[in-house]
Amino acid sequence: MRTTGIRLLCSTALAAMLTLAASGVALAHPDAQVIADFRSAYPELFKTSGAGRTAQPAAIPDIYGPGAVLNVGEIFMKVTNLGLIGNPFTNLSSDPSMQWPGSSGIEYLSFSLISVGAVNPVATDPSAVRRVSYYSEWRPPTLDPVDRMYRSYDGIVNGQRLVNDDGDSDVFTGGPLIDEDFLDGHDNDGDRLIDEDYAALGQQMFTCVMRDDTPAAINSVFNEKHIPIGLEMRQVAWAYSVEGYEQFNPVEFTVYNRSGHDLDSCFFALRTDMDCGPIVSSTYYSDDFDLPYFPSGKFLLPVSIVDPLLQLTDNGQGGKDTLCPRIPIQISGTSIVDDDGDEGKTPGIGSLLLLGHTTDPLGFNAPPRVQFRALRSYIVGTPYLSGGNPTVDQQRFEFMAGTDNVDQATGAVTLEQGEQIGDYQNWISVGPFRNIPDGGSFNVTIAFTVEEGTNAKALEFRTDYNLYEAGQKGADELFRKYPVLANAYAAQVAFQGVYEPPRVGYEDQVPNCHGCETPMKLARGTPSETHCEQCEGEAGTVCKQVTEFATTWFNFDCNFCTGAWDENTNQGFYLRRWNAESPPPNPGGNMAGSFNYSDNPNRGLSVTPSGDNMITIAWDNLSETTADPKTRWFDFRSYRLWKAANWTRPVGSAGPNDEDWALLGEFRMFDHAPNNRIRRPDPQNPGQFVDVCPTVWIPQRAESVQVCLENGDLWDNQSGVVIHPDATVDCVRENGICKQDSGLALGSSNQILLRTRYPVGRYKYVDHEVKNGFLYFYAITAGDSVCVEKCRDNAVCMQNNPTRPDSCIKANEFFGRVSGVESEAVTPQAATQPVGGVWVVPNPYRGYSDLASRPSSWDLTPNASDPTGTHVDFMGLPSSKWKIRIYTVSGDLVAELHSEDAVNADLRPEVTGSDGQSRPGFNRQQDSANDGQARWNLISRNGQDVVSGIYLFVVESDQGQQRGRFVIIR
């Protein structure tokens, strides 16, 4: 569905369009049929309230209000648990679909719909043999709150990748169980623990589970009756905030067979509508071109001298040769680009990359290599037989199993660019995955990317790539000319990962023979089998017995560079994908929507952010207690505090963009000594000494002052501000005991440290540069010490450090990304007053049809959750419960406000707290004991915008009554 087609229409206009579409009346809007398709697929999501202005929230499908938006990198992208990526439901949420850079209002995706097809070999009904489960047919397993989206990050407790977090073992083999419990709120491994050992990736990760056989899925009728295959899909989407990884968001799909029988010829497919342009333009999607073959190609990655894959061997002449100096990196992608860049407003190209999927070197049960099976790219409205969109399962399966526009020998896309501009969509398919037993699975990993590029330059790619293949151009030259290609290469290299020694007890997860890349282990209770390698040049065929008790490794692809092996030590190495640096996770703060809600039992008055002409920012010490996921070091160094003001909610913006943020301070931790006092002679007592604080030049104050620090203090050397940990805030406790996290001392390989966890409120900063009634955003990012040069790469250093050849000799600080969404905005609130102290701001209220003409950021651009974008505020309300009635001068009741009313319910879903209870996630009008301010959005109790005039108000509480008046001019 085209996002602009909904974003720029008011609710009544959208309802009219959808009604016409449903009745079959021809529509002028180019995307009207797609909009109608979404309404047909999800009728429950398009209900409106009696007032006709606000959509009813859907409890479980995570698409309402502020959902799961990846926003730590340069691409702000929404993921859902409803069979799609993106945000086509703009009547329900103002979240971005896929904006770049950051929250810019420039979209590069409308939606990407998930599809899985399979052959049911036991079906007796011919219509049930080949079926496809397609977007609206994927639903959360149940409507219980537990079946929702889950959030995590690399290094989180219980989510350390390739680590046995809970220390359990296999009851049959005694070997460790690693990352065995998917993050979904369920006990997946039967040990009576929930989410105790899973694998977290990136600086932000969202996981969910979907099924195609739920009642909602079975009742889905999208052009035909849905016949479920019996599948479960585990979806993992994540993003990085580190340089070099910020321009792509990976998504991994693992599809499980839950049908009770074998499935054959399974295919995975995506229907993607990438729209490039600023959503303030009503037709931004109509002037795109497709780039079906871009980016793509095969490039060689040099193998590092310290990479075990290099596999050095004696050359018989006293030297060393390597078997694998370079490894091939295959890029498979397809893109959409604006024809002219919208006069510089759309400088990027949106791409969909296929990074990996289950393979079988023999090609029996899966494709032997990673590549597209089929691809279609077409202008919306193109019939299926003309290369357009398949509309029923028969057509979808036919496309998925076909080989449209892909050379099966090389994986190259053969389709040329379309001949005219338009609204392009594409389908890609992957597979087949055969002989999937009940309980078996296959996986597919893709990535959505955006990078700088133009259509004119991209059209030169095929010529340049041919020159590269002919040796007339280098890969670096192509990467410099095509940032989209360089970004795709970086994503593919990150997916490729690195080889590393196995951890103790994990030896069965690494090859035990040279060149062996394929592990085989039979299901419990299966008789042993014999399998043979068929490699030319071998001295006879190598056959091995496979059992249910241990893993047997094979060299099925006959390639000695796909399984790292050290012949000197007879040791194999583990291939760890997604090897990326990681800054500390940003701490939890009292501004987050999951914390800053009125009913939160953990939110005390001391950390309620909104005050009278002040904002109190509070955060926990999560960044300090999270060891680096790669080194296991406690390497935290500092916090950065950011602020965004004067945000007016530009069309399509989910929150402040990069240019909106201003740095309030960088607070470094003083932790290398008990204090910073210096022992000096006492001028008053000769021969004696005193401890004094050092005098430091403070640039913002243009003077030197004494700065006194204790161990654990945070201080900003620009402003001189010192933040002391609040000693009155108790630690995070579990069964009465303070929770602690373990890690290594910085630079150590064996010195274990423990760090105690503290909740939000450990640190506080008060900002007085704010005004009551205006929106402000705050963000806290954390930095650590990142090694950019290790001793092992420097011969002199290695000679000087023989006991620590891996020591770091050059380090930089590495920070998380600053970001924020509207649901995290905070507003200073006037304090309570005795009865009779209420006044209205602004008075008179002057409304302007042109937002740019309004005098301040008090008014915001209207959107789905805030249809007026404006408000007047009642200030100085009493401390007890109150009720405000608003009347016209003729005595007609216009609206009624209550202290218990929700303020931002359209932005906030329910929140499940640490106690497992779900509570409303919104703020109430009376948000705290000292909150004497209430907001009215100038909508009457009948759901209409109020007009110019004089209005009367009556405030009632158990402390008395007050009357007043205010003026609205429109």
Describe the protein in words.
- The protein folds into four domains: 113-297 and 329-454 and 484-499, no CATH class; 500-576, no CATH class; 606-670 and 736-822, no CATH class; 829-969, Immunoglobulin-like.
- Helices cover 9% and strands 31% of the residues.
- Strands 8, 9, 10, 11, 14, 15, 18, 19 and 22 form a nine-stranded antiparallel β-sheet that branches. Strands 3, 6, 7, 12, 20 and 21 form a six-stranded antiparallel β-sheet that branches.
- The protein is globular and about 95 Å long.
- Mean pLDDT is 85; it is low at 1-30, 48-60 and 801-805.
Average pLDDT metric: 85
Total number of β-strand segments? 57
Q: Give the percentage of residues in beta strands.
A: 25-35%
Q: Structural class of the secondary structure composition? A: mainly beta
Shape: globular
Number of contiguous helices: 11
Largest sheet: 9 strands, antiparallel
Question: CA-to-CA gap between the ends?
Answer: 35 Å
